[in-house]
Structure prediction request, 161 residues.
Amino acid sequence: MASPPALTHFDGQGQAHMVDVAGKAATHRVAIAQGRIVMNPATLSIILEGSAKKGDVLGIARVAGIMAAKKTSDLIPLCHPLALTRVAIDFLPQEGDSSITCRVTVETVGPTGVEMEALTGVQVALLTIYDMCKAVDRAMVITDVKLLEKHGGKSGSFTHP
Prediction:
């Protein structure tokens, strides 16, 4: 049986450190993450009709998710600051289960991947929906947040099973 891969954010003495990426080639990196927020049907209607008192819920959530992706290294202690070349956010409302799926695609050309930026963008976009709608629905649930795909770098591509 092969030994499990080592955690890269710890040195030989078990101390946390930022991974040295200086020797890695700058390549095109892409990550796609997604998550859902489940709500009452009336809340979904308010969002889709654009009648929320705080304004355009999905428009503001999109901007919040983009901003969060750009600020990931300020939030996650050992993340590298990256020059992102693209952040795209799509919302897919699903009336059947009264939810909204958020999908975030992040790209860069650099020595390290953008998985954390995509995941952070999803979480903050969904949290923004919650914040803007909590006055009418405090029972909303954020769920199913995951990395769907990543491409580029030494480890190659990953697609969520």
Remarks:
- Helices lie at 41-49, 57-70, 72-75, 115-133.
- The mean pLDDT is 92.
- The radius of gyration is 18 Å.
